[in-house]
Structure formats: structure tokens, C-alpha cells
Design a protein that fits this description.
By secondary structure, the protein is α+β, with helices and mostly antiparallel strands. It has helices at about 1-5, 20-25, 30-35, 70-95, 130-135, 145-159, and strands spanning about 35-40, 40-45, 55-60, 95-100, 120-125.
Length: about 160
């Protein structure tokens, strides 16, 4: 219901301020922050408002808005985490494909434009239907906490 009602969803104006969820998530436990894996510069986290089950994001710890602002080490680890996320999702959930993306700026679709993040969205044949259009909601067959635990376990085994 929290997903359907959009509870605690950050403002869509691109400025989350002190409440930036990408800055606060790593300060929480992995379970509470929905963090799947942590690296030196980047972490992988489930999207609280996913497009599909298993929707992960690779996020730098540093609060930076633009891709060109990343250091070489951050850029490398962001790419490595995105690759690992795809491997883990393939093993754990068997998607048929992926959407990968970085939305730069609110006009480009970034819900939290002030903190860079790369989406890794698993896709299955027939995973889109009338629900998002008619019901303005998505049908997600797995609780976020369960998905986080499953993906974290596979991530550790694959590392």
C-alpha cells in the first residue's frame, strides 16, 4: 500500500535536500535501506518505487548530480555494479532482458535529479499490461524485503 499511495516518495522537483534517500540509505542497515551490496564508491539498492520486481539501482555514495562529475573510480565501480546487478538478476529471477538508464535532470525523468543513480530494470515478455494505464499502479509479485534478501544472497555467492 505504501507503494500504491506513494508514501514518503521524495519530491519530483529534483531536489531532495537533506532527505536525499540515496544519502540516507547507506546509513541504515542493508535490510532497512533495501541495499543489496556495498562497494567502496557505489552501492546497489532496490528501487522503493520499482517498475518491475528486482528493479535495482547502482548509486554512488557521494552526492553528485551529473555523470561527468563522477571520479574515474566511481565511474568504474558504477559500471561494475551495473554488470553484476544484471548477472545476479539473471541468476535469481531469470529475466528475458533489461532496461538500463541514467536520467539526467527532472525533464529527462529523474525523480531524484540531485543524486546520480543508474537503473537496472529486469524485463520479461508480457510484463507490461493495462494496470499502469487504467489502475495507475503496478502489480509486483514479490515484497521488496524478500527480493532484497534473495538478490543479496545471490550477489554474495557470485562475488
Amino acid at each position: 500500500m505504501a507503494y500504491i499511495k506513494g508514501e514518503n516518495k521524495p519530491p519530483h522537483d529534483g531536489d531532495a535536500g537533506d532527505d536525499c534517500p540515496f544519502c540516507t540509505a547507506p546509513k541504515r542497515s542493508d535490510e532497512d535501506g533495501l541495499i543489496v551490496a556495498r562497494g567502496a564508491h557505489v552501492y546497489a539498492v532496490l528501487n522503493l518505487y520499482p517498475y518491475n520486481s528486482g528493479h535495482l539501482m547502482s548509486v554512488p555514495y557521494r552526492h553528485v548530480a551529473g555523470y561527468p562529475e563522477l571520479t574515474a573510480d566511481e565511474t568504474l565501480e558504477l559500471a561494475q555494479f551495473t554488470q553484476q546487478a544484471m548477472r545476479v538478476l539473471r541468476e535469481a529471477m531469470g529475466p528475458h532482458g533489461f532496461n538500463l538508464g541514467i536520467n539526467q535532470g527532472p525533464v529527462a525523468g529523474a525523480g531524484i535529479a540531485a543524486h546520480l543513480h543508474q537503473h537496472v530494470v529486469p524485463r520479461w515478455g508480457g510484463d507490461t499490461n493495462f494496470m499502469p494505464i487504467v489502475g495507475h499502479t503496478r502489480v509486483l509479485p514479490q515484497l521488496l524485503a524478500d527480493a532484497r534478501a534473495q538478490l543479496a544472497e545471490v550477489w554474495i555467492a557470485a562475488s
